[in-house]
Design goal:
The protein has 264 residues and is an alpha+beta fold. Among the domains are: 35-82, no CATH class; 144-259, Glucose Permease (Domain IIA), CATH 2.70.70. 34% of the residues lie in helices and 22% in strands. The protein has helices at 19-29, 36-54, 66-77, 93-132, 253-259, and strands at 144-147, 150-152, 155-157, 160-163, 169-171, 176-184, 188-194, 200-204, 208-209, 216-217, 222-225, 236-243, 249-251. Strands 1, 4, 6, 7, 8, 10, 12 and 13 form an 8-stranded antiparallel sheet that branches. A hairpin with a 5-residue loop joins strand 12 and strand 13 (249-251). Helix 2 packs antiparallel against helix 3 (66-77). The longest helix has 40 residues, at 93-132. The model is unreliable at 1-15, 49-54 and 60-66 (pLDDT under 50).
């Protein structure tokens, strides 16, 4: 009698018998469907929508609540491969080839522009150098005028003599083309240069010639080394100017040089 339940309330219930027993047995044996996944999905969806409505943040770059819904779907419906996935962005081969051609054309255009700029810079530098260089020079630097143009010792001296040490460089007095270079009567060795105005300058008595006929020379280019060959009393350059050509009138070289900015 120590039990809290009165014994007179205990009622024995016998299991049903006959047809009722069979129906009871079938109901007991049939498994009941598990409605928990559907309930869970509905709960997650509702929770995700509620989170989105309330503005709870999800992962970076995702709309609020969207990630939790997706996770729930994946957990309940399958893996990512089983879900509908949007196709990745792509281009056609023809579009890619067209883009490659565009890039190649752009690079070629830039290279051409750079080459033009470089050529223009080189041309400008050459023009500047041309403008800066002298158009006429003294035939011998530091030389001493020892004899002028005119009468001398009972004859006529058709040039000027410029004395300097042996093998001093001799220069083209102005731009021109070498007409002759070699042995010459009375000069031992001589060089003749034709200039653009038709005049010819003559250089005599040199020890060594450094140019050849047909060679173009700029004013100041070295053409020979000063010497004492031919009819000479000492190392010097005999310099003449023939007006209008090699057989033209021999004029005074001093005014000819002065007209070109060279003073003796």
């Amino acid at each position: 009698m120590g039990s809290d339940t009165p014994t007179d309330l205990l009622v024995a219930v016998d299991p049903p018998s006959g047809r009722g027993a069979a129906r009871h047995s079938r109901r007991a044996a049939r498994p009941r469907p598990d409605r928990r996944p559907g309930v869970l999905l509905a709960a997650l969806l509702t929770g995700g929508l509620a989170a989105a409505a309330l503005g709870f943040p999800g992962p970076a770059g995702a709309a609020p609540g969207s990630t939790s819904v997706l996770v729930a779907q994946q957990q309940l419906l399958g893996t990512e491969e089983q879900l509908e996935v949007l196709p990745r962005a792509s281009v056609t081969v023809a579009e890619a080839e067209a883009r490659l051609r565009e890039v190649a054309a752009s690079r070629a255009s830039r290279a051409e522009a750079a080459a033009r700029a470089e050529a223009a810079a080189a041309e400008a530098a050459a023009a500047a150098a041309e403008a800066a260089r002298p158009k006429a020079v003294m035939p011998v630097d530091g030389a001493r005028l020892t004899s002028g143009y005119g009468s001398r010792w009972g004859t006529f001296h058709y040039g000027i003599d410029l004395a300097a040490p042996m093998r001093t460089p001799e220069y083209a007095a102005a731009d021109g083309v070498v007409l002759r270079a070699g042995a010459a009567s009375g000069f031992g060795l001589a060089v003749y240069i034709l200039h653009d105005n038709g005049d010819v300058t003559v250089y005599g008595h040199m020890d060594k010639i450094l140019v050849e006929p047909g060679e173009y020379v700029d004013a100041g280019d070295t053409i020979a080394l000063l010497g004492n060959r031919g009819q000479s009393t000492g190392p010097h350059l005999h310099f003449e100017v023939h007006k209008g050509g090699i057989d033209g009138k021999r004029i005074n070289p001093v005014p000819w040089l002065r007209e070109r900015g060279v003073d003796i």
